[in-house]
Write a structure and sequence with these properties.
The protein has 69 residues and is an alpha+beta fold. The protein is built from 1 helix and 3 strands; from the N terminus they run βββα. The chain has a 3-stranded antiparallel β-sheet with strand order 1-2-3, covered by helices on one side.
């Protein structure tokens, strides 16, 4: 599977990150993987740096979820 990044958003007020990944299924359908998690940092990061960091953390979360099943 080769998921494609669709959205990576961060809300500073709620300190929540939202990452959406999609891929096509073998039967012509669509696979959607979404992670929503708390994200706090003390560093002053640019919007691009925050996006890269939340995508990295989302992929780590999804790998842990897959390993736990």
């Amino acid at each position: 599977m080769a998921f494609k990044l669709v959205h990576a958003k961060y809300d500073r007020e709620s300190e929540r990150a939202y990452v959406e990944l999609r891929d096509e299924d073998d039967d012509g359908g669509e696979i959607l993987a979404v992670t929503i998690f708390s994200f706090r940092t003390t560093a002053r990061l640019s919007k691009q740096q925050i996006e890269q960091d939340i995508v990295r953390k989302a992929l780590h979360i999804l790998k842990r979820a897959a390993a736990s099943t």
